[in-house]
Amino acid sequence: RDAGCTPRKCGRGVTDAVITRDEAERIRRIAERGLSLGGSDGGASILDLHSGALSLGKHFVNLYRYFGDKIRDIFTEEDFALYRDVRQRIQQRIAQAFGISPSLLYLTKPTFFSRINNTEAKTTHDEYWHPHIDKVS
């Protein structure tokens, strides 16, 4: 077992210093553009740029297949580059905070944006108000 992959401490970390205000605003605009393409019938909508999962009605679609080449009109290469860069910075900050080598730390998937409103839940995926564990992922 590699000694560099086991954290020496346990806890939570909170920081405002991973991305700039401008980057946060740009990330939010990316999420808003993507979420505007779909939306759950039940109030909890998800956009996962990594896998392409997008809430649409009571189901999920792969936005890259669903929209095809039109996706280039929605997201730019700069958008994807910023998303990748921010994910990498988060990974590095977590590794630093917990004394783990960044090369031995893997972020879970999916990493997604979510939008929740007060629409009544239509499926169990829309219910965020009770204790649950996401075992499948």
TrEMBL record:
Transmembrane segments: none annotated. It comes from the Eukaryota. GO terms for cellular component: membrane. This is OGFD3 protein. It comes from Crypturellus soui. The gene is Ogfod3.
